[in-house]
Amino acid sequence: MVLKIRLARFGKRHAPFYNIVVAHARKHQKRRKKKKKKKKKKKKKKKKKKKKKKKKKETISDSESPTYRTARGSKPLEVLGTYDPIPKTPTDGNETAKKFKDIKLDIHRAKYWLGVGAQPSEPAWRLLSMIGLMEPKYRPGQDINKEGTAA
C-alpha cells in the first residue's frame, strides 16, 4: 500500500500546529463507500411492529481493530515529529535575535520511512529538505527549464 509523509493539522483557528505523520495515501478498497441513491418513500399510516434485534455473535475479526486505515482524517501509522509555523522569538533574552519556526523530527524514523518508500507531500518535502534529508525540488537561482544544472 502507498504511504505518504504529510502534515496533519492541529491547533486552533489562525494558530496552526502540524504533526508530521506517516499515513496511507489512499482509502482501502473494501472501505470505500458507494453513493446510494435516495428513494422517496410514501408515508403510509400503518402501525409498525417492533422487531426484536438479534444479537450478533462476536468474531475475532470484529473485536480487533482493522489493519488498514483511510487516507485522511484517521489515525496515522506513526507520528514522526511536529512543526509550528508561527515564528517564535528566542528565549535567551535577546530582543534583536531572529525569529524561528519550530521543527521537531525523529530523523532516524524519517530516514526509515523514506527508505521503505513513503512519498512526502509538497510541504513535507520542503521541511525534510530544510533538515537535509531530501534534495530540495527548487532552489533560488536554479534554472527551472534545465533539470540538473544551475543557471
Question: Can you give a write-up of this model?
Answer:
The protein has three helices and five strands, in the order E-E-H-E-E-H-E-H. It is of the alpha+beta class and 151 residues long. The protein has one domain: Ribosomal protein S16 (S16 Ribosomal Protein, Chain: A), CATH 3.30.1320.10. 10% of the residues are buried. About 6% of the residues have low confidence.
Major sheet strand order: 4-3-2-1-5
Q: How many whole angstroms does the radius of gyration measure?
A: 24 Å
Share in helix: 10-25%
Give the termini distance in whole angstroms: 39 Å
Globally, the shape reads elongated
Return the domain count.
1
Structural class: alpha+beta
Number of helices: 3
Q: What can be said about the biggest beta sheet?
A: 5 strands, mixed
User: What is the level-2 CATH architecture name?
Assistant: 2-Layer Sandwich
Q: Write down the CATH topology.
A: S16 Ribosomal Protein, Chain: A
Poorly predicted spans: 58-66
In short:
With 151 residues, the protein is α+β, with helices and mostly antiparallel strands.
